[in-house]
Design a protein that fits this description.
Strand order of the largest sheet: 1-2-3
Shape: elongated
Distance between the termini: 26 Å
CATH architecture of the largest domain: 3-Layer(aba) Sandwich
CATH superfamily of the largest domain: HUPs
Number of strands: 7
Strand content: 5-15%
Radius of gyration: 22 Å
Order of helices and strands: EHEHHEHHHHHEHEEEHHHHH
Helix content: 40-55%
């Protein structure tokens, strides 16, 4: 039986950048080659905790799905749908919220982070309940694995805790998901060595035009070490970006030139520009050729399949808590 892996993307923006590609999309491309059953949903309900513009949200959803498809995500191997199209997410959220204590929720990072930005009485219930909905998102589909970063690790721990609590009250119902940790997942640095991020406004979009790309690469600061002097490539942000676009043999050659001396930073920046431009070209072409109607059809088909999967879990949960008098 195939192992199931579940992941999601939040449409707070329609921009996908290189950091997203190497940190998330590339994982899915690798999963496509394996025996995994893959679920990818657009977490539009999570986005509305901060985004309250319906026109922008719709635009972001279409743009994100188009970017994923243009990046060679195969919809025949990956189930893609919108969270809000599957009623089971909210149905399960309420059941889980009914056995979750206030004290537990106040210890969650989502609440603590919100307190850094707003007063407690300004925090929306959507933000406060965010971890419970995320737990419902996951448990609804009984995944074996969930890829999580450092900022989401607590959410998965909570998901496992609430699943165990439900199982102890109502009997074995939910599978306890494991975190998927891929040591090959890359964090793409930029400018000052921080990870590429929309929040830092330091990213290269998958749709970056060539002129903008060249300007951004030329702005990457480098050390004042003279050209003839040996340099440590691992301390150079240009090289740390470039290596993700090189073959093993190419990386070895460039690394040797750094260490021997005689390599100008302009040469490395020019090479980085050419490599990224070459990498982005087919993605940008594919993006332009995917019509909105194809995306809407894909999401509708995905929602139908997701509802078929989730309805079985909801029926089991509703029967166990007493909402259903009898099973069908």
């Amino acid at each position: 039986m195939k192992k199931r892996v579940l992941t999601w993307v939040k449409p707070t923006s329609d921009v996908i950048h290189l950091g997203n590609y190497f940190g998330a999309i590339k994982q899915i491309l690798n999963w496509q080659k394996e025996w995994l059953d893959i679920i990818l949903f657009v977490a539009d309900m999570h986005a509305t905790t901060t985004l309250h513009d319906w026109e922008t949200l719709r635009k972001n959803i279409i743009g994100l799905v188009r970017s994923y498809l243009a990046s060679w995500i195969n919809p025949e191997r990956v189930l893609v749908f919108k969270q809000s199209d599957v009623a089971g997410h909210v149905q399960l959220w309420w059941v889980l919220a009914s056995i979750t204590t206030l004290g537990y929720m106040k210890r969650m990072h989502a609440y603590k982070d919100a307190l850094q930005k707003w007063k407690s009485d300004e925090i929306t219930m959507g933000t406060f309940n965010y971890p419970i909905l995320m737990a419902a998102d996951i448990l609804l589909y009984d995944p074996d694995y969930v890829p999580v970063g450092k900022d989401q690790k607590q959410h998965l721990e909570f998901t496992r805790d609430i699943a165990e609590k439900f199982n102890s009250i109502y009997g074995e119902t939910f599978k306890l998901p494991q975190s998927w940790i891929d040591k090959n997942v890359a964090t793409i640095p930029w400018i000052d060595g921080r990870k590429m991020s929309k929040s830092y406004n330091n990213f290269i979009s998958l749709l970056e035009d060539d002129d903008s790309l060249l300007k951004k690469i030329r702005r990457i600061p480098t050390s004042p070490i003279p050209i003839d002097e040996p340099k440590n490539p691992d301390e150079c942000n240009v090289f740390n970006m470039l290596k993700h676009f090189l073959s093993d043999e190419e990386e070895k050659k460039i690394r040797n030139r750094y260490e021997k001396g005689g390599l100008a930073y302009k040469e490395v920046k020019d090479l980085l520009y050419e490599k990224i431009k070459e990498f982005l070209a087919p993605i940008k072409r594919a993006y332009q050729n995917i019509p909105d109607e194809e995306i809407k059809k894909l999401l509708a088909q995905g929602a139908q399949k997701a509802n078929e999967i989730s309805s079985k879990k909801i029926e089991d949960v509703y029967f166990k808590v007493g909402y259903l008098i009898s099973k069908s």
